[in-house]
Request: fold
Amino acid sequence: MPDATTPPLILLIDDEPELEVMARYLELEGYSVLTATNGEEGLLALASCRKPCIVLLDLMMPVMDGYGFLRRMHDDATLCGLPVFVLTASFQTERM
Reply:
């Protein structure tokens, strides 16, 4: 368990170039940030680091998308309780 001097960890999973800007901003706010560019890298990161306080997740990525990541995370008893915040630029609109 992290001590009081260890900053909270955020896992940021996104394939966009702006990933580094968001990671840097979060670091300036006092967080430790681990990044991954797809869901598969995100799962590997979770297996090799301390538990993050939140996962920031894009849905549309190569290799393994956010939906695949969420399915795998949900099936893993050690990960299923992690809070996930979904960030995506893709959305469906209904045409009238």
The chain has a mean pLDDT of 85. The two ends are 52 Å apart (CA to CA).
